[in-house]
Amino acid sequence: MFIKNTWYVAAWDKEVSGDGLFSRTIIGTPILMYRDSNGQLVALEDRCCHRGAPLSVGRREGDCVRCLYHGLKFDATGACVEAPAQPRIPPQARVRKFPVVERHRWIWIWMGDPERADTALIPDTQWLDHPDWRSQDGYIHYDVNYLLIADNLLDFSHLPFVHPTTLGGSEDYAAVSPKVERLADGVRITRWTIDTAAPAFATKVKQWPGRVDRWNIYNFTLPGILLMDSGMAPTGTGAQDGQRVDAAEFRGCQALTPETETSTHYFFAHPHNFAIDRPEVTASIHQSVVAAFDEDRDIITAQQRSLSLAPDFKMVPLSIDAALSQFRWVVSRRLEEEQQQTSAIIPITPSREVA
Amino acid sequence: MFIKNTWYVAAWDKEVSGDGLFSRTIIGTPILMYRDSNGQLVALEDRCCHRGAPLSVGRREGDCVRCLYHGLKFDATGACVEAPAQPRIPPQARVRKFPVVERHRWIWIWMGDPERADTALIPDTQWLDHPDWRSQDGYIHYDVNYLLIADNLLDFSHLPFVHPTTLGGSEDYAAVSPKVERLADGVRITRWTIDTAAPAFATKVKQWPGRVDRWNIYNFTLPGILLMDSGMAPTGTGAQDGQRVDAAEFRGCQALTPETETSTHYFFAHPHNFAIDRPEVTASIHQSVVAAFDEDRDIITAQQRSLSLAPDFKMVPLSIDAALSQFRWVVSRRLEEEQQQTSAIIPITPSREVA
Amino acid sequence: MFIKNTWYVAAWDKEVSGDGLFSRTIIGTPILMYRDSNGQLVALEDRCCHRGAPLSVGRREGDCVRCLYHGLKFDATGACVEAPAQPRIPPQARVRKFPVVERHRWIWIWMGDPERADTALIPDTQWLDHPDWRSQDGYIHYDVNYLLIADNLLDFSHLPFVHPTTLGGSEDYAAVSPKVERLADGVRITRWTIDTAAPAFATKVKQWPGRVDRWNIYNFTLPGILLMDSGMAPTGTGAQDGQRVDAAEFRGCQALTPETETSTHYFFAHPHNFAIDRPEVTASIHQSVVAAFDEDRDIITAQQRSLSLAPDFKMVPLSIDAALSQFRWVVSRRLEEEQQQTSAIIPITPSREVA
Description:
Three copies of one chain form a homotrimer. With about 350 residues, chain A is an alpha+beta fold. Chain A has helices at about 145-155, 160, 165-170, 200-205, 280-310, 320-345; strands spanning about 5-10, 20-25, 30-35, 40-45, 60, 65, 75, 80, 100-105, 105-110, 140, 180-185, 185-195, 210-220, 225-235, 250, 255-260, 265-270. In chain A, about 20% of the residues lie in helices and about 30% in strands. In chain A, β6 and β7 (about 75) form a beta hairpin. In chain A, α1 (about 145-155) runs antiparallel to α6 (about 320-345). Chains in contact: A-B, A-C, B-C. Chains A, B, C: Keywords: 2Fe-2S, Iron, Iron-sulfur, Metal-binding, Monooxygenase, Oxidoreductase.
């Protein structure tokens, strides 16, 4: 079961290009995406209303797409505008059209009620195409439910265990509980380390006058969007008070989009504002992240296999689970709300009598 | 759910040969086929009545087959005639025997009540071994339900879209609705094109005095047998009135036999009565058909995948679906009839009282 | 459904060695096995109580194991003794510990109530490490339910059919019914052949004065342990009366341990007391057995596939099934007993009223 009235990341902008037809399954529904002659995005259900063939193996005809099974042609609103030997097209001959918006390199799709698709709700990921920041595009396909990955992203304590040589840090790091705050539709995790040595990777890319203050601030919001603000600045320059002087910063952008109940799309990039004229630094940061995410995928996939053998498994909650427990609660509440809204519009039937 | 009281094509004659044991699953039941010492076909359930081992991994002993697990020996009637350490064989020690008939290169099997296995019901496919006709044997295995393939065969409109460079023809072709007639156990589709140019492939194999009349007449009957009569004759020689003068004709024979609910055996050949002394023409016709069928398989398999993700999908019917809708109705009616017959022989139990 | 209060063979001793973490699924539960610093075996559920990750991809720390997802550390009793950022470990933070015992090269595990894990119940397999006997270690993984393999081991009649060139013997062999006796928790099968020629393999390894008496005595007990006593002695030396003079003997040890409902671990060895200074004889005996077991696996796997297509299949019992029918009855009775014991400890709830 998935939240419907929310913006999901459907693709990197470059994945939907030219005259191509791009297909990706989002929360269980196959979606066809393409660009019209003005470059505007179109997102339609990738399943012909006639006999169910995927439109994405069809062909573009101008701003329309033709199913290459029986030749039905659909325009960018999803309406069937041509069918062989069918002078009058029945009005129900249409495929569903989805609101879709392009913002800072990501394509966002709204899988719920189109009336409620407010683009003001789209999270700000400006660092993905800002001239003062650099990053590489990342995508990983996971064969696990998206909530297991959300658990992982909401937990700092696994870093030294899963990523000892990549993101890692010392195992003491796991012992310091970060600050966890509830947001309207998610959770914020904040961790500051004041007056500490600059880590090895940072001394390679920048000169530091002495010790530094480091921060990690995660905003994790529905449906599964993680915006990270992390970095370091020389101690005493007031970073914790909001001043960022001579800072080396990251603005990680990560999005989990469920494909099915047991698979997930994972989009990510880690823009940085230092050494932006050195592509090898950008590549190195990206490679470190990818290596760490591969480690995550290994353990999470093993976890999913283990859990699938034990459907009645009850997790023993620990204090390190504060953030992920809160996020799971936010997800559950939203799902309940959507279900109540759905049942509210079901017409009332007269009560049945029992003899 | 499958129709039982009908003849299914089980194999090409050459597939069951010599001393071999041939196994194929038909409507969910594994069938062992072999020839006795007189060359007569035997069809038995391919599952030993003792512990369920497949007899087809056993061995021939004269006209009998011995299970190579515990050594039970069955004769050609399915009766167990020998069992180790078992002087008296219990009468229930037998496997089911199925009526099986060889006709014009195809082996037909009756999966229902043997009493009703009337060989007069077997469709005529005389062109498969007639000296004036030539063809090559075809077989394709499909991972889809047989009705999706029946839909495809009953629809002409997909030809220009799925087969633009093989069977194809222009897309206008799809726009002309063929004549559809209900048969007792199926449907007939007829299409005539009068006074048209001979197609490219026809001019290569035969001289034509001028324009031609072309026809396509499909008889599609239960359980999934398509007999095609198609061809062309010089315009004005009266083809549409039943005269076939200097005609180039095909008599396509195609049979769908469900293997399971999600897989199908597809037997086919396309006998032609022209250029029968040129094997390369026969081979070329066969290759064209195989290439087209591979295209069909691609789109139908994509359709099955798409439909499997959407169990509640409702197809939007169009006028091009007339033939396939009628055939699906014929299938449903026959299934209902068989179910009523089955339930009619269930003994009546006294009604239960409810306190 | 599996019997719980019984000893299962979990591994060969050498499989659990050094600092390693060994994982094997036993009756549906993943088990982590390792040796502590004294070489004592530890068996824990291989699933972290926190978020379900497998401990076997974690790491040893002294006699403890640390989960390499979030860093929980468990001691050899299964108790969590360390968790990041968690000064007080909740008492329910533990994984299940299983009684485990090493005896004559095999590691035995008790999957039921630990209070009832009486090591006196472990079958005697002393021949596996006795200085007067030699054997090689065998293990095969089967993709079938363990009862189909038990059926096979309890049946002598398949030998000439499945193993004509390996274990085989003549087909007449199958025609002699062995003596079958019920044991408290299993069945004993006894077959004697008096005054017969020594078989070919026996004349290669030993001089025989003349004809021999041969015996095969199988003790097959819960959960699936086969101890074979087979061999031959010169006729007239009183073997059948309990004297074993100049005998060539085997003491086959075989254990079936269900992995899941559809897969099984099969441990085996065939100790012999002749030619023990000729390793090539031991190797040759082992190879013959492995070749025969591969033949068994082929036919049993085919049988399982065949049965899986026919869930309502009713086996026709024959007299050769006496032993396996008795063993299946013993299994069923024990399963029922365990279910009654389980339901007996469910607290009685007040009856619900119906309005």
